[in-house]
């Protein structure tokens, strides 16, 4: 019997990096064992509190970093809008769009 290999991708439930699962079975939730461990520790820390178990608790530094990454996404989007208004070439717009996509991917990570 031949097992068909499937390739699925998603994002890590802990850090947001890409997770690629191959072959049969469940799709992986975490990119690394350390991410799985951090997620477990976070869930365990919420046990016995009023917070829902699916809460994401960030340190002040992590929350600031998320805010900074979101600011970078807004700046990149504004750069695209400005370039369109100024009649940028297709190549320039493509470069700005690529930068916007990369910035948005980095912003998806919570940690």
Order of strands, main sheet, comes to: 1-2
Average of per-residue pLDDT values: 86
- What is the CA-CA span between the terminal residues? 42 Å
Integer-rounded radius of gyration: 19 Å
Descriptive overview:
The protein is mostly helical. The protein has helices at 33-46, 60-85, 90-108, and strands spanning 7-11, 18-22. A two-stranded antiparallel sheet has the order 1-2. Helix 2 (60-85) packs antiparallel against helix 3. The protein is flat.
Question: What features would you highlight for this structure?
Answer:
single chain, 111 residues, mainly alpha, two-stranded antiparallel sheet, 2 strands, 53% helix, flat
List the helices and strands and how they pair.
Elements: E1 7-11, E2 18-22, H1 33-46, H2 60-85, H3 90-108
Antiparallel strand pairs: 1-2
Helix pairs in contact: 2-3
Q: In a few lines, what is going on in this structure?
A:
This protein has helices at 33-46, 60-85, 90-108; strands spanning 7-11, 18-22.
